[in-house]
Amino acid sequence: MDPSAQASVAPEFVDAPARSASSTTNQVALTRAGALRLDAIDLLRGLVIVLMVLDHVRDYVHAQTFVISPTDLTQTNPLLFMTRWVTHLCAPTFVFLAGVSIFMQRANGKEPGALSRFLLTRGLWLILLEFTLVGFGFNWGPPVAFAQVIWAIGASMVLMSLVVRLPASAVLGLGAAIVVGHQLVASMIDAAQLGPWTQAWFFTMQPGPTLFLRGYIPYPVIPWFGVMCLGYGFGFIFRQAPEQRRRSVWMLALSFLMAFVVLRAINGYGDPAPWSVQSSPIMTVLSFINVSKYPPSLMYVLVTLGVSMLLFLALDKLAAPLQRFLLAFGRTSLFTYVLHVYLAHSVAMLIGVLGGLSASYYLDFLARFGGATTGQGYELPIVYGVWLAVVLMLYPISSWFARVKRERRDWWLSYL
């Protein structure tokens, strides 16, 4: 480690349990600027990557992917519902932690102008990736404009480049206003009445089709930008000394989850899909937590970030080998994300063809999200087996790239 870089970092940036695990493996992680990384954040990112792999493997492998919605309580079962629901944690956690990381860069002394330029260029780079390399990896077919989480993060970074000069409290207030008020504003606008502005509305406020190529926008940017602003506004918590940080994160998680339970119980504002009593207690619970992701509702943000903050507290208790495993993904999240798209698609096609299924099913794959009901694939036990296989195959490559990022300070690595 560069002694000058080590000396420039405040002690509270180093998480004691994570530092111990890192020393076990002789790993010391630095940011591009030479500041020590907070391993607990990378552990949570790594877990989210693992869950995201599950979601996309399920898309490719599960026989009922295009037959039923896993969160449709009239057709699903508890295991299928939770297989899908647990992956709801991925997008808001990624976006929230991106906001935290931006705050960390600002707090580490990065000049506002330089930070703004970096956010603008990296955001545009992510948008380009989404509509080229990532989109093709998911589809394996003619061009499709499918604006998913990488688009949402990239576009949110572009917007963050405009507000990073504001006080963190102002950004937090902006994020809270968006997360709380988005549903109200969206309910007042009929996209069909916007004429030439309809496409802009779909990209910014509500899901809808693209009017170029073929495609769909499930991740309109404004509500996700609100989540990123929350991460930036709460970023100060992650600068605190370890014990104070744990107390603060615990209080944040508890506040989010209590607000969710109270507001959801009222069954009023906060989610367009009210819950209801079902045929059994377990199905009633599933109805209660069955919140709307497209776009992310207030209830969705509260429950997913509340659970993620609890996971943040639990992950530093993992054994060192498990920490090393998750850190390999968490420190290379974008690289691993792009890699997993191609690997999951390839493995799914391989086992499908070996099992006698049609190879054409895995080509032009995103077009099937329009409602094709092929029923081609396997049941959940096979889905889980393929998921674990893909994760294990990803690990050595992600671990290698984590070493590259740790040992080199090339500027372009900050874009990966």
From TrEMBL:
Task: Name the domain of life this protein comes from.
Answer: Bacteria
Enumerate the spans annotated as Heparan-alpha-glucosaminide N-acetyltransferase catalytic domain: 37-256
- List residues traversing the bilayer: 85-107, 119-138, 144-164, 171-196, 216-237, 249-266, 297-315, 335-362, 382-402
Q: Which InterPro entries match?
A: HGSNAT_cat
Keywords recorded for this protein, A-Z: Membrane, Transmembrane, Transmembrane helix
Q: What is this protein called?
A: DUF1624 domain-containing protein
Native source organism of the sequence: Steroidobacter flavus
